[in-house]
Amino acid sequence: MGRHRSDPLGIARLALVGLAAVLLLAVIVVGAGALLSTFGSEEPGSGVASTPSAQPSTGPSAGSSTGPSAGPSAEPSTPRAPTIRVVCRAERCPVFVRVPGGDVLIDRDLTRGEEASYFQPELDVVLDDASTVQVFENGTVRSPGPAGERQAFSVKRSADQ
Fold first, then answer.
1. Strands 92-98 and 104-111, bridge-based pairing
2. Cα–Cα distances in Å, from 70 out to 64, 66, 77?
3. Rounded CA separation 105/12 (Å)
C-alpha cells in the first residue's frame, strides 16, 4: 500500500510554535521590566509622599516623637514644606496631580484623613470637588472652593524653599 507522504505543514507548524514561545517570553520580560521600574521609582527623596492617617498632621513637627532633648537629628532645623499637600476631609476626594508636560503623580480618590505631598518645582493640580480637601501650597493654606466646584490650578515651588 504504499508510500508515506510527509505532512507539508510539519516543519512550518514547529516553526510557528517556536515563534510563539519566543514572543511570549519577550512579552514576559518586557512586563517584568516595566513592573520593576514602577516599584523602583518611589525611592526615598524622589519627592513623593502619600500617607493614610486617621488624623492628618497640621504642623511640621507633628508625628515626630523626638523632642529637643533627644539629641542631634539628621533632619534640618527647619523642615522643608512640600510644594503641594492635599488632605482629604470627606469620605471620597478625587485628586489629580502631575508635573506639567510630564509624569502623573496621583490620579485617584483619597479617603478621609489621607494626604498626599509632593516636592517637585512645579505641579498641575485638579480637584473634582474643591470643598472636600484642604490644600497647602508651599506650607500656606489655600482657600477652599465652593461645594461641588471643580478647580484646576498650577503651583510653583517658592524660591525660599
1. antiparallel
2. 11, 6, 13
3. 48
Taken in order 18, 22, 23, 24, is the CA torsion positive or negative?
positive
Secondary structure element (H or E) that encloses residue 73, with its range: none
What pLDDT score does 11 carry? 83
How many residues are there in the chain?
A: 161
Three-state DSSP state, 26: helix
Residue range 55-103, pLDDT digits in tens: 334 344 444 444 444 444 454 555 778 889 999 999 999 999 999 988 8
Cell matching residue 133:
480637601
Select from 62, 48, 61 the least CA-distant residue to 119.
48
Pairing of strands 140-142, 133-137: antiparallel
Q: Residue 52: pLDDT band by 50, 70, 90 thresholds?
A: very low
SS3 of 138, please? coil
